[in-house]
Amino acid sequence: MPSVPVAELKLGSKIIQDVVTPLGGTLFTKGKVVLPRDIEILQAFLIQQVDIEGAQGDNKPAEPAKVAVKQPPLKPGATINEAALSRNSSSLHDEYEKMLVMIKKVYQSAAAAPLPILELRGQLEALLSQLKDYHVLKFTPRAISDQDYNYHNAVLSALTSYRIAQWCGHPQKDWMQAAFAGLLHDIGNVKVDSGLLHKPTPLSSAELEEVRRHTTYGYQLLRNVTAINEGVRLSALQHHEKIDGSGYPLRLEGSQIHFYAKIVAVADIFHAMTLKKAYRSAQSPYLVLEQLQKESFGKLDPVIVQTFIQKTTDLYNGTRIRLSDGRHGEIIFTDRSNPTRPMVQVEGRIVNLMLERELYIQEIIA
User: Fold this and answer.
1) What is the topology classification, in CATH, of domain 78-312?
2) Residue 100 and residue 44: Cα distance in Å, rounded?
3) What DSSP string runs through 201-250?
4) How far apart (Å, rounded) are the C-alpha atoms in residues 267 and 259?
5) Distance between CA atoms of 141 and 124, rounded to whole angstroms?
6) What is the C-alpha separation between 366 and 135, in angstroms, rounded?
7) pLDDT tens digits, 98-130
8) What pTM was computed for the model?
């Protein structure tokens, strides 16, 4: 049968040709049966039509279509990760995008409706089941719109918080709750003027104070939610607190801060700085790790920061990278005492990033 508009897709329909994204990556493969969240993903990628198998009882074979997917131009401000799209669709990216669609809906309705925690948990479990393919420094969403920054930060913080809880040796019962803490830490932003959250110029004192209220708003929204523990609620309240008492909203110190909040603080800062915003380019993950290292002296939990840096930079020799000057190379040796500044081979010569401080790794390619 001919291409069917996504808006008219019926659940259970079978896709007969790969659904292809703008740069040629496969979003869904031939033979996939359409589920409710798949329709949301198609709509999120602005895909208008797909080819599906003919209805049961139709003896005529489905006509092959010349074009599997018809797509309008991307929304202004949207960026696409070409490297991610050049690979075939991965289950990790699929589940990530389903989680993104769900958390976007949840955030948008949180001020007026109860949080669907069981649905969130189901999708979070599906996402975490693909964790073996998630590397904090390597993973990049297929497409990012400036308006969706907060939702990407939430999903990435959930993945990374789960990983940190594992790496730091916390009991398994805390891993999922740490992921929930990452997913919901900024939910209080739904009560903050969105114009302030996306304002490209410095905030006034009054505006900054209003933005900072997202911590207390978040705790209030989560206060009566079941199926999450108090640590998740406290993470929404405390993820901007600092070990030395200089944070907000309560200026707590050290042991007064819940350990989920300490984990989320590291994940949130990392992803906030490495994600592109409307008014700021994405920063090098290696420079962000160095910034976290500095923050571990009095601001962030030093054990969490050191564990995070050591684990994320534990890459095999031969990992391909792009330097800040645009040249491509590969890691040949990492000194574990200086993990953010390995030796790399570039254009036939060895570059020691410990000595050439003006250079740094801009991106891991593969």
Assistant:
1) Hypothetical protein af1432 (1.10.3210)
2) 9
3) SPPPHHHHHHHHTHHHHHHHHHTT-SSS-HHHHHHHHHTT--TTS--SSS
4) 13
5) 16
6) 11
7) 999 999 999 989 888 889 999 999 999 999 999
8) 0.77
Q: How far apart are CA 19 and CA 3, in angstroms?
A: 11
**Residue 211 CA to its chain's centroid (Å):** 21
Residue (of 44, 46, 42) closest to 27 by Cα position: 42
- Measured at the CA of 15, the angle between CA 92 and CA 72, to 5 degrees, comes to 80
Token look-up 């110190």 returns: 253
From CA 211, how far away is CA 249, in angstroms rounded?
11
CATH 3.90.105.10 describes domain 1-73: yes
DSSP three-state, residue 47:
coil
* Residue 205 identity: S
CA proximity to 182, closest of 293, 304, 282, 297: 304
Instruction: Give me the phi and psi of 277, to 5 degrees please.
Output: -115, 170
For the chain, which residues make up each domain, given as ranges?
A: 1-73, 78-312, 320-364
> pLDDT tens digit string along 166-175?
999 999 999 9
| CA nearest neighbour of 159 among 186, 126, 190 | 126
More confident residue, 38 or 299: 299
Q: Which two tokens stand for residue 165?
A: 């809880």
Q: For residue 297, give every residue at least 6 positions away whose Cβ sits within 8 Å of its Cβ, in sequence order, or none.
A: none
Which is it for the CA torsion 160, 161, 164, 169, positive or negative?
negative
Strand partners, 331: 344
Cα-Cα-Cα-Cα dihedral sign, residues 27, 29, 30, 36: negative
Give the pair of three-digit tokens for residue 224: 């009566």
Convert 113-140 to b/e letters by CB count within 10 Å (16 or more is b). eebebeebbebbebbbebeeebebbbbb
Ramachandran area for residue 21 (φ above 0: left; ψ -120 to 50: alpha; else beta): beta
